[in-house]
Design a protein that fits this description.
Blueprint lengths: L13 H5 L4 E3 L9 E5 L1 H6 L4 H4 L2 H8 L10 E3 L3 E3 L2 E3 L7 E8 L5 E7 L16 H16 L6 E13 L3 E11 L5 H9 L3 H15 L9 H23 L1 E2 L21 E2 L23 H24 L4 H30 L10 H17 L4 H12 L4 H4 L5 H16 L6 H9 L9 H14 L3 H10 L10 H4 L4 H5 L8
């Protein structure tokens, strides 16, 4: 309870209330020594929570799982999923719990969920625990994505547990409190579709619509319309990933949200030298989830989502309409590349300092952007700094860009095309264009070596200062500040060449 006597959280748990049978009520495991390592005060305030009260011992006990706050109804959600293309009919929250839902200050419903809170009936032999490093990683990457304007789940808190977690070696344990628009996944739908539980599937689909697309509630054709909305959200999301060099690393169907938020920051990474084939995940041996494959995988996942919805549409419209329904759903999936390419080009135009002009110059602008990427790839240029130094060129200083790109004739040829395209628009002062570009091309991203340094200090030495300094820089990605200079520099090539990310379980 808050010192005033009011509850710390004002829960309104629609998932628990509206979807009985789609989850297992469960309690987090108690831990020996809860300690708050991180609290996201700005996010807490968004949610209508009191950061000062949450920083107390009582807050630490809640975030570690020792105390279930008033109004919470903790539960493990059921879901299935295609993992690296192979279907698992039962996955579920093996080390996570939905604590409850709050309605934030903007009237938006948000989940608060734990990760690392112990075994559940879905644990599949795992220990249900999490380590300090991977949970603080979720903080860093999620807050970086938020600062970059990319829809994302976010960390509200991380609490250490005072007990070790067994991985390759003993690691200090922790619990993450994660906030999401919801935790509904493509895999949630697959769980009930695979079992032929059509009534529960319909219940779930109507719940998803009420929560994320309420204007479709009760409307004819709402399930195909839901597919269309999810496709639009995912096209926009993946385009944003591509435009900052983000590699999710594990785009299984249980990691694709219905809300269009990025979820699960396990084996993710930000690319440095531009390479469409870049893979960092230790478990992605075939490159299925390589940077350049992400739009293709998003489409594949959406096709799996469509398969779960088709029985509902056919049930509504009759077997005689089945062929037409399949054709309509297929049309949505086939339209996804166009949605993605349009979203990608909108972002690329902004990064190039161009005004968005849908339908005009599309092919020429797409070729201009693609040829820029070819130039970066051929010269091994850091993706983030390449775009950033292009803004310097817009201001009239080509030297920083020339220092990155060894092939001077190819660079000058491309710059001539780019300047001609800029000149075709309404006149804009060079520094104005440069500032516009600096507002969308970040200077700071979560450089993999800096993330690892911060997590190692926290995990091995209980030293959070490097984590806090890095977090401060990531929350201000567009401004070039002297104190943040170390976070803007790429890792040595030898470090990047052998860098791998892991899922943390």
């Amino acid at each position: 309870m808050h010192p005033s006597g009011s509850p710390l959280f004002r829960f309104d748990n629609s998932y628990a209330r509206d979807l009985p049978g789609l989850y297992v009520p469960w309690k987090p495991a108690e831990v020996p020594s809860p300690r708050l390592l991180f609290l996201n005060a700005p996010l807490a305030e968004e949610l209508g929570l009191d950061p000062a009260a949450l920083r107390s011992d009582a807050g630490a006990a809640i975030f570690a799982g020792n105390t279930v706050p008033d109004g919470a109804e903790p539960l493990a959600q059921a879901y299935a999923g295609h993992q690296f293309g192979g279907f698992s009919p039962q996955l579920g929250d093996g080390r996570a719990l939905l604590l409850g839902e709050v309605v934030d200050r903007q009237g938006q419903r948000r989940d608060i969920a734990f990760k690392g809170s112990g075994r559940t009936p879905f644990s599949r032999g795992g220990d249900g625990k999490a380590a300090v490093g991977p949970m603080l990683r979720e903080v860093l990457i999620g807050e970086a994505m938020h600062a970059l304007g990319i829809p994302t789940t976010r960390a509200l808190a991380v609490a250490s547990t005072g007990e070790p977690v067994v991985r390759e070696k003993l690691l200090p344990g922790a619990v993450l409190a994660r906030v999401a628009a919801s935790h509904l996944r493509v895999g949630t739908f697959q769980f009930f579709a695979a079992r032929g539980e059509q009534a529960k599937l319909r219940q779930l689909a109507d719940y998803a619509i009420a929560r994320h697309d309420p204007d479709l509630a009760g409307a004819p054709g709402r399930y195909l319309a839901l597919l269309q909305r999810v496709a639009q959200r995912q096209a926009a999301l993946v385009a944003q990933w591509m435009n900052v060099g983000f590699i999710h690393g594990v785009m299984n169907t249980d990691n694709m949200t219905i809300s269009g938020e990025t979820i699960d920051y396990g084996p993710c990474a930000f690319m440095e030298a531009y390479d469409p084939r870049a893979v960092f995940s230790s478990i992605d041996h075939q490159g299925r989830y390589a940077y350049g494959n992400q739009p293709l995988i998003a489409r594949w996942n959406l096709a799996r989502f469509a398969e779960t919805l088709l029985p509902l549409v056919v049930e509504d419209e009759g077997e005689a309409a089945a062929e037409r329904v399949v054709a309509e759903a297929t049309a949505v999936i086939d339209a996804f590349p166009g949605l993605f390419e349009a979203a990608l080009l909108r972002g690329q135009r902004a990064k190039l300092g161009l005004a968005d002009a849908p339908g005009e110059e599309d092919a020429a602008d797409a070729a201009l952007a693609n040829d820029w990427l070819v130039l970066l790839h051929a010269n091994g240029v850091d993706f983030t700094l390449g775009w950033r130094r292009l803004a310097d060129a817009a201001a009239g200083d080509e030297r920083p860009l020339q220092a990155l790109i060894a092939d001077t004739p190819a660079l000058q040829q491309w710059l001539a095309r780019w300047r001609a395209r800029c000149a075709s628009e309404a006149p804009l002062a060079p520094e104005q264009r440069a500032q516009r570009m600096r507002g969308v091309n970040p200077w700071i991203i979560p450089r993999n070596h800096r993330v690892e340094e911060a997590l190692a200090a926290a995990s091995e030495s209980d030293d959070l200062a490097p984590f806090e300094r890095l977090l401060s820089a990531l929350r201000d990605p567009y401004e070039e500040k002297p104190e943040h200079e170390p976070y803007a520099q790429p890792a040595p090539a030898a470090v990047t060449a052998c860098y791998q990310t892991f899922c943390g379980t």
